[in-house]
Amino acid sequence: MDKWDKKRKDLNNRLRRIEGQIRGIQRQLENGEECEAIAAQMSAARKAMDKAFFTMMSCAVSQELEKHTVMTDDMESGVEDITRILAKYA
């Protein structure tokens, strides 16, 4: 089993949740809800999308590193730490 299999599954689940959030935002718009409430939901969906993006960037960085060198546990841990920091402050 590829080390990214679980992450891919988790990412798919995250994207499904984001899809549900977007549908909810559309309903809010159709129902004429307050702009601030809609903006709050948009912000949450955007943050979720950012986290998904950084997960994919972690995968891309790891794959690129593997092309050039054997990935050690320490390097992999470093990539995950960088991804966590980027996602936290995005």
What is the helix tally?
3
Low-confidence stretches: none
Helical coverage, percent range: over 70%
Rounded mean pLDDT is: 86
* Helix-and-strand structural type: mainly alpha
Please tally the β strands and state the result: 0
First-last Cα distance:
31 Å
Describe this structure in words.
The longest helix is centred in the middle third of the chain and has 34 residues, at 35-68. Helices cover 86% and strands 0% of the residues. Helix 1 (5-30) packs antiparallel against helix 2 (35-68) and helix 2 runs antiparallel to helix 3. It starts with a helix and ends with a helix. By secondary structure, the protein is mainly alpha-helical. The radius of gyration is 17 Å and the shape is elongated. The mean pLDDT is 86. The protein contains 3 helices and no strands.
List the helices and strands and how they pair.
Layout: H1 5-30, H2 35-68, H3 73-89
Q: What labels would you give this structure?
A:
90 residues, mainly alpha, elongated, 86% helix, 3 helices
Summarize the structure.
With 90 residues, the chain is mainly alpha-helical.
